[in-house]
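Researcher: Next sequence.
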Amino acid sequence: MYKHLFTSESVTEGHPDKVCDKISDSVLDELIKQDPNSRVALETVCNTGFALLTGEITTKAKVDYEAVARKAILDIGYDAEEKGFDGNTCEVMVRLDTQSPDIAQGVDAGIEIRENSSTDKYDLTGAGDQGMVFGFACKETKELMPMPISLAHKLTRKLTEVRKNGTLKYLRPDGKAQVTVEYHDDTPYAVDAVVVSAQHDETVDLETLRKDIKKYVIDTVIPKELLKEDTKFYINPTGRFVVGGPHGDSGLTGRKIIVDTYGGYAPHGGGAFSGKDPTKVDRSAAYMARYVCKNVVAAGLADKCQLDIAYAIGVAHPVALQVHTFGTGKYSEEKISKALAKVFDFRPLAIIENLNLRTPQFAASTNYGHFGKEDANLTWEKTDKVDALLKAIQEV
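Model: Next structure:
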């Protein structure tokens, strides 16, 4: 038996990087709501007392960027000066440009149309940039995600829940969690260590906080059957976490890319997600790759599936696509690849249409991972292609 440990982390919506992600995706949703064809590459920066919105936006929409940013900050819970950041009073700066026409011409029509005379409508949209993306799914959890990142996200979601519903009124929006899982061979066996760091106000003593976090957060999330006698718990291990959020550290859109995906369990491509419209394949194709892998595993074609896709800017068709099942496939990777080609279209416009990505839904994806949140009704989390895959695998 081969034993090994794997660790993943998650952060709450009050983490400074996630504040920025939420602002960027909230603006994106408002732009797409008014103009579904908006081209958006928006990054937000925040620090003590300010938020800066910068990037490239081309749209017919009329959006009050400052108002959207303030609402996102307030919804997170930064609504008073004593919390170190206040959406009512912080400075909001907007410094935006339009998309480069050199990029736009490649997105407006793929090279298949511009140079090869294609008449296929799905060649109308070229990839918004070069790059590679990865999708992943496995049978370790009911949402078909790796267990370490799944548990870490559930801890940070619970931290936010007990803060917002008043169970632990002394909590503030910033926080982190980390879970180390012990594997026997390739199967989760037990939780080896749990780390939770929760921002709090001045009124609570450390002993009370640690007792409450253990009772109301950890004990309600980590299944008892996964605990060992020597499972380690570290709760606010520095002893104090009053200064947090943008007051404690600067934030930037797209800096939590491993938190956003698979917690390091699977590779990540070269791009972040938040603040980008779906012509940016480093977002939309990563969603598509997750969708495909989840359907492969849900269909029983493999217990673990990873999909690698690469694009060239201005080209609709991927330049490379590779399936990995890590020895768990019920069929050969070549046969599964052929089945995928029959069921899925990986060109940007096809992805946008199939996953309905020109509707406002991106702020719902921002926090606690872009994958595995079945309750958020995200289109890329559906398993509606199982029957089609089972049919296709018999035909190839």
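Model: The radius of gyration is 22 Å. The first helix runs from residue 16 to 34.
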